[in-house]
Amino acid sequence: MSTWSDALYDTLLDAGVKQVAYVPDAGHKRLIELALANPALKTTVLTTEEEGVALLVGAYLGGERGVLLLQSSGVGNCINMLSLAAECRVPLLMVVTMRGEWGEFNPWQVAMGQATPAVLEAMGTIVLRADEAEQIVETVRAGSVLAFDSGRMVAVLIGQRAIGAKVFRK
Amino acid sequence: MSGAMLERRAATARLLAGRGDALVVTGLGSTTYDVFAAGDSPLTFYLWGAMGGAAMVGLGIALAQPKRRVVVITGDGEMLMGLGSLATIGVQRPANLAVVVIDNGLYAETGMQRTHTAAGVDLAGVARSCGFAHAETVGTQGEFDPLARAAFETPGPFFAAIKVSPDPTSIELAPRDGPGLRDRFRGAVLGKAAGR
Asked: Which residue did the predictor score with more confidence, A102 or B182?
């Protein structure tokens, strides 16, 4: 779907990621396909995003790094579970594709999309943003170091401007 | 009736007597107290919050450590909040993961309000429907005895709900500092690699 997804996949592998957890999003489609195609990665489809926070804390306790792929609407589902990574100061890398902002057609996405950075920051998560496609890989690379080497919760928000706003198709 | 029921603390101690080098995750509240009361271990990771997350923490450990047995011991209220995680585990099907629910049908931590299991919701039935390799409910000593071994040996994903007496038990204060629990668990599991 887009070339940045392939580069992002390589960046995550370089960062030592062994577990990938996701709730599907159109913006993550290519990355999810790449992860599922790699038998060396443990890729877990979730029923709700908060499961991924708990899963990746478990992965870290067992010695593996992971990444959580989600959409901005799923950030709200994670709020209390972020307490786990916050209190235990476990590295947590989230890559969030944004909705509800640049050119959004669906008004139901706007409330959570607009609240996403504030909600994450309220829980102590460091928020990085990429609003141009060419910023995505370097931002995730920087975020992965901050997460895994400095032991922090980090969310990289990929702006709708970078992904291309979803259009309504019948 | 209540005289014939299993008692949660005795059942947990009996269950853990055969844990060997298994990794144990507890759900917040009573199961954290029960497991601590049975004997502390660096191979136990106690949750004091993150309600609904115990089974998923167990799955993350089980995927990272496929050669180790991982046993999640949690309560019915905690399991109900993470019901979707049974579906997620059913997709991954880790052979080394067991989820054991100590089911008193009550939210003991908040004033003994009845949970969904008290109204008949069948957690083992949910686990079975989600594709767990083994799922059962036990309520008597005779049913429980074989389970204490099976939870650590039967290829999983393994699920058991242990119906226990609603009688209140004492609060046993397990360690609750997050980074401390993190470091001792990783140190015990990973050795020197824990520093990475």
From this structure: B182
Q: Find the CATH number of the domain harbouring B118.
A: 3.40.50.970
Q: Is A67 an 8 Å CB contact of chain B? A: no
List the single residue in B56, B63, B185 with the smallest CB-CB distance to A54: B56
Residue A103 within a domain: yes
Q: How far is CA A39 from CA A33, B31, B95, B100, B167, in A?
A: 12, 36, 17, 29, 48
What is the extent of the structural domain holding B110? 2-189
Tell me the chain B residues in contact with residue A81 when contact means C-beta distances shorter than 8 Å. 50, 52-53
pLDDT in tens, chain A (170 residues): 457 899 999 999 999 999 999 999 989 999 999 999 999 999 999 999 999 999 999 999 999 999 999 999 999 999 999 999 999 999 999 999 999 998 999 999 999 999 999 999 999 999 999 999 999 999 999 999 999 999 999 999 999 989 876 666 55
Q: Is residue B196 included in any domain, yes or no?
A: no
Q: How many separate domains does chain B show? A: 1
Residue A122 CA to residue B136 CA, distance in Å, equals: 41
- Residue A105: in which H helix or E strand, if any? none
Residue whose structure tokens are 């390799």: B133
Residues in chain B with CB shorter than 8 Å from the CB of A149 are none
B156 near B133, Cβ under 8 Å?
Answer: yes
The shortest CB-CB distance from B178 to any of A42, A56, A87 is to A87
CB contact under 8 A, A89 and B178: yes
Is residue B172 situated within a structural domain? yes
- pTM for the model stands at 0.96
Inspect the interface and report whether the beta carbons of A84 and B85 lie closer than 8 Å: no
Residue A11 lies in a domain: yes
Is A22 at the interface with chain B, CB within 8 A? no
Please state at what angle helix B8-16 crosses helix B141-153, rounded to 10 degrees: 40
Strands (E), B17-167: 23-26, 44-46, 70-75, 97-103, 106-107, 113-114, 134-138, 158-163
On chain B, the residues whose CB falls within 8 A of the CB of A82 are none
